[in-house]
Amino acid sequence: MLPMNTPVINFECVHECIKLDKDVELALFHKNDVVHIYARKAQDDVHDNELELSDLCPNEPSQPITHDTLKILLDTLDGEILKIQDHAVSLFKKRTKTPLQPTGVQQAVKALIAFLGNIEPLDITLTLNNFVLSCNEISNVIQDVYGSRTEVISDDGSDYSVVRLKFNETEKVDHITDVCLKIKENVQTLIENYCKAFKVDFQLNFNSSQLTGTKLSSKIPDNIVIYVSCLHRLFSSWSHDEYLIAAQIYHGTRPIGNTVLSKAVIAEYSIYKRVVFESWLEFENMSLCLLPRESRLVLVVYGRTFNTEGQDTSATVSQTELGWGAIQFFNVEGEFSQGKHLLSLWPPCADKRLGPAPAPGTHPYSHSHPVLSIEIQEFDFKIFFPPEFQDNHIIKSESFDFTSLDLNTQEQLLNIIYQDTFTRPLSEDREVLWEKRYYLLSKPIALPKVLLAAHSWDYACLADLHSMLNSWSPIEPLDALQLFLPCFPDNEVRRLAVKRIRLLSNDQLIDFLPELVQAIKHETYDNSPLAEFLLEKALSSPTIAHNLYWFLIQPLPGQSPQNSYDIHSPDDKTVSESRYYRRLQLLLRALIATCGEALRKCFLSQQLLMKELYDTAENVKVSKESHRLKVLIQDLTNIDQSLKDIPTCLPLSPSMQICGIQIKSCYYFPSNTLPLKINFKCLEPNVSIPAIFKVGDDLQQDMLTIQIIRLMDKLWLKEGLDLKMVTFACVPTGEKRGIIEMVTNAETLRKIQIELGLTGSFKDRPIAEWLAKHNPSALEYERAVANFTASCAGYSVATYILGICDRHNDNIMMKTTGHLFHIDFGKFLGDAQTFGNFKRDRTPFVLTSDMVYVINGGDKPSTKFQHFVDTCVQAFNIVRKHGNLLLNLFGLMASSGIPGVTMDAVNYVQKALLPELSNPEAAASFARMIENSIKSRFTQFNFFLHNLAQMRFNNEQNGTELLSFVPKVYTMAQEGKIVCVEVYGCQKRYDPEKYYVYILKVFRENQRDPSYLFRSYKELSEFQQKLLLLFPLAKFLSLLNTSIHMGRSHIKQVAEKRRVEIQNFLNTLFQMAPEVSHSDLVYTFFHPLLRDQQEASIEDTKLKEPKKQGYARENRILGQLKLTLHYQRGAFMIMVHHAKDLPRIAGNQEPSTYVKVYLLPDHNKATKRKTKVVKKNCYPSFMEMLEYRMPLDVVKYKILQATVWSHDSLQENEFLGGIIIELHDIDLNSETTSWYNLSNVHR
């Protein structure tokens, strides 16, 4: 439903119709007749009022630590302690000789430690040892008869004597009692720490009564001190000689202060193997008052191995990162995390620089993987971060006029702020940026750079920083996306980003939902402004809710991730991704709980459908090849019945309402993953939605690539450049599974090329002929070529920037309307495919000779190809203009877990955008890529190799075509009834070999003039064979009598003999019954094709290419030259684009041209510049930048002379024309691009 007062052109569906040359269909309804199937109802509001936090929290799976078992073990420990205490008392009261046995208490403590995941704290070890020593001491004294009195052991006459005191029975019993109490306290501390760190099925009332009073962290000048106790539960594969800890404080991705190292120690055994560090780590010059609100502590564990070789006594040390643990210094209430903590160790592949610290209990193997026990310096009082500084002080930008700065500082600041976020300025540049920050208040784009240049984010600096946020000119919503990067952890900065993206429309917001879901991971706390915003938008738009649901489902494992997530693979990658599962699951459950009953049922029915399709795909895979289709049909029958009972929509779009499956038209593709091709029945009658369900490939890469290509298309459309880009929906529905929208009326480039044989990839005409077959009228063909040229330019730019590889001819498709598009983006960001040792992707992008043939309209260069080059470079520079947006999106996706999408991906895209070049320089660079792509034969050879590999799959038949050379079916009602057909003549043609076509004169009812068609003998033979197949009882005259000849068949005598046979065949055909003579096959054959409408004389007996005009030397100069002039960065830049309509030279040859440039006056020819030579081309593209390093005041008084020459290595070069430009008449501070007419200039 279209909102009021909104232009129709703003809607994406309208753009799609315009792009595909479809009519925009609008329907008028009364507002009361519009059905809102996903709208919330009154009962949903009642339901939401009763929601509690427990409804949002998932049902945790059974935990190894249970209350009942723990209670049994604690009771056992209490019993053993009571026994030992009673025994100690009885020793002295009853004077028994039985020694104390500490083993009962020891075993009870060991059982508790084993139950709590083999975590043996150092204080428990020390207390147990003390307990054993005390027990042994009492036992020894009881055995000693002399322990009952005081006596002198030795006296040597000096000032000192050795005396043994009388044994104090009461003191020893009290000591045993104290040690037992200490054991119980240490066990309680262990349980409390364990419950804070890991999942258990009970809650503890933590004892915090020891802390009296509160203080603000800003009032505490003490340095941060950390005590690293032990590393527990070492992996059996760890066999390092030494271990050490590196501690670092982070704020976002920025380290604060210096790294502090522990001492290196070896592993040792007590009850279990562990590493005892016993290290106090102090962060000098890093006091508690300097900690930012979002700061965290990161502790990295390293293993050292000493490598000795042979007799050499010196050893080399190799150091390996084993993992890391982290903790936020302040919790969500702002309380400082002092005291003892157990930190799960995360694998090195989980980026420790990305905040926040993983929440306690999020490690999927927290009960078995390594754990680090630490203590953050404890105070006698609670510490809280000060409340937010409520001050609406606004800094007035008028007080800081940017133009009042000196020109050098202005230029320096502008250079810094227009860099992308991922280009790190020099330290001196950052200092200047921070010092002059108030002069940039009026420049919104500068805000992220200034925030990154801030010296500190401690409480003392927040007032200035937050007032600066409120005073800054509003940043554009798309630019505000970078404030969600993990390098901006401050809550107020992220709140500002949310405020700015509220200005995005729902359609725009959907474009960036994948990145916003990733940004949720980097919010310091769960109840973030971004999470609230996403839920709010989901409540206001079912489309946003639908997309948000599937973006949250994708990264979570399991068939029902909203309830629980099961992780069966303990590999490092899976473990590292699980640090975000709990937060995403909580947001997913909040979405499902608040979206309303109708949408909730839709989500669950979609999830059930995807599960059933997954089971079907797995069943097909495990079945024998001969049974696969039967299994597929059987499973789809059950799914069809389910959809009839409960219609739903596809994950591809909430508008794709389905109610069943067209089972007979479904099949599977015979590739490695056996994707399923499924035609879903739409709720609208006689409408189907084709889709592919795929299991085995990670479709997240495809989803991201398609999203970025769509974004590029929107950027181009915004700049007025329509590149006819065709994309498709792709929704991952779980790990290595998902559903893909099928583009209709499209064919792969491989199938198009092999219509001309296995070596069709080396030929120039397959695409052109395929387009002509599907676009029979001249207007349709012209439109298809325009669509092809534009979409080819768009995908050339997109595939280069994104580094899309594995570009064989089955991964490139074309619609019958000429739109070219790419599929299967499993290899991107430069991850090239190899065939053995052969690198298959060797060009910047795919641009082959058959594509150029279509663009040029033949095998000769033309202005159409120059237009293609200009379109490419224009599209490339538009993307470069918005390059920061692309880099920010990839930066946000770096934590998504998508293979290959890391910070290296950001660097790859950044490098591909050529940020160091100006627009003309980038245009010249991209033009060279076009040239390299065309010249390379590797692409076509790669296509050929793929053709060979796919030969076993070449038995597909397209049953919708009656004739191979006419793609559609035509009827008598469409074409007009045929009265008769005569063979008017035959014509000899060359393509490039000689062959004959027959001119058929077709008479139709109510048409005064006959039409003339051109058909080859091969096509006529195919027509007759199809007639025999369709009408086996009809008696047709055979054309086979003249089809086989000894010797040459393409000669005039054979053609004349065949002409008679063809006429007799046609006469007989139209004398048959109407069911035969006026069948659809007949009218399809006689439908006029593009070749029939092109101008060709029916009287000519021979048709060749028109002869080229003979060379006649004239004094008249022809042609034009395209130049761009611009003065920037202290240099005068001349971009030589193209020349066109150049005359031929002697011998009727095309000239080998180059351009020569002077700045006159120039008596010494010091300003001479030349381009490369473009061989044999009347429409050469140079795309070269010529540069003059001289002041602007000098340049503007010069005269530019550019001349075009034909190069000849044997004789004098020939002058083709030139231009003279008075530079003082041109504003050189801005780019000036124009075509200039060539004339005869003095040289």
SSE layout:
Blueprint: H1 12-19, H2 42-49, H3 53-56, H4 67-93, H5 103-115, H6 122-143, E1 151-155, E2 161-164, H7 169-197, E3 214-216, E4 223-232, E5 242-251, E6 254-261, E7 267-269, E8 273-287, E9 296-308, E10 315-328, E11 339-344, E12 371-376, E13 382-384, H8 407-417, H9 427-435, H10 447-453, H11 459-471, H12 477-480, H13 491-501, H14 506-511, H15 513-520, H16 529-540, H17 542-553, H18 572-577, H19 581-594, H20 597-622, H21 628-645, E14 648-649, E15 657-661, E16 667-668, E17 676-682, E18 688-695, H22 700-718, E19 730-734, E20 737-741, E21 746-748, H23 749-753, H24 766-774, H25 778-801, E22 812-815, E23 820-822, E24 834-835, E25 838-839, H26 849-856, H27 863-881, H28 883-892, H29 903-912, H30 919-935, H31 938-949, H32 972-975, E26 978-990, E27 994-1004, E28 1011-1016, H33 1017-1030, H34 1052-1069, H35 1074-1077, H36 1080-1085, H37 1090-1093, E29 1102-1103, E30 1120-1128, E31 1131-1140, E32 1153-1160, E33 1169-1170, E34 1181-1188, H38 1192-1195, E35 1199-1206, E36 1214-1222, E37 1232-1237
Helix pairs in contact: 4-5, 4-7, 6-7, 8-9, 16-17, 16-19, 17-19, 20-21, 25-27, 27-30, 28-29
